[in-house]
Design a protein that fits this description.
The protein has 207 residues and is α+β, with helices and mostly antiparallel strands. The chain has helices at 14-28, 37-45, 89-104, 117-126, 140-144, 152-157, 176-181, 187-206; strands at residues 2-5, 49-54, 57-67, 72-80, 109-114, 129-131, 166-170.
């Protein structure tokens, strides 16, 4: 198994990556912004993606998006092929793409919005902290990308202040000492936060 920075030669996996993301979203019943093979290919060609390969077999993927003229970057589309799940590969990919983001965009804040508890835990271990959406990018093109998510109506009716996703941010401008003082958040905290949001929005849906 190797986890590498993707390039143009890996574009042959773009369709399989998109299909795997879509299938995973359907199985889990979670919201996710859909991407096209052309979009994924562009990320590879620009050196803004990480891919995991088991010889010639696609095993996992994640890509980088830059927003607000590079002030913010996001690690998006994290996916592991069903044949390689349960082996800690997602955590390895997440770490690799985070390091690549920090190297390529050293002054950018790295953020994530996700409904996945596992991703929240991985983010926390890397130094991300939960934040309000107002602390994330105000780049309209980023939020427009949420339109293909099934929870987009939640985002719009709260005036983009809240959704079922949790916003998380890594700020490189904070001192190393401050980063070290901050302890990773326990998974039970994320579970409680997710339950509160689900109850809140389900009640609104029933009205």
């Amino acid at each position: 198994m190797k986890i590498i920075i993707a390039n143009k030669s890996h574009s042959k996996y773009a369709q399989e990556i998109c299909d795997t993301i879509a299938e995973s979203a359907n199985v889990r019943g979670t919201g996710i912004a859909r991407r096209t093979p052309e979009y994924i290919t562009t990320k590879m060609e620009n050196g803004n993606a990480v891919i995991a390969l088991d010889r010639n077999n696609f095993a996992g993927f994640c890509y980088i998006e830059a927003w607000g003229h590079g002030k913010f970057v996001a690690n998006s589309g994290l996916i592991v092929h069903p044949n390689y799940r349960g082996k800690g590969l997602a955590k390895q990919i997440k770490k690799k793409v985070f390091e690549h983001s920090r190297n390529k965009f050293p002054n950018s804040k790295v953020f994530s919005i996700t409904t996945g508890l596992a991703v929240m835990k991985m983010n926390s271990d890397l130094g991300y902290k939960p934040v309000t959406f107002s602390e994330l990018t105000d780049d309209q093109s980023f939020w427009d990308g949420c339109q293909t998510c099934k929870n987009y109506d939640v985002l719009t009716r709260t005036n983009r202040k809240m959704c079922l996703c949790t916003g998380m941010l890594y700020d490189p401008n904070k001192s190393t000492k401050d980063q070290e003082k901050s302890k990773p958040i326990k998974e039970k905290v994320f579970k409680r936060l997710k339950r509160i949001k689900q109850v809140l929005f389900l009640r609104k849906d029933k009205k």
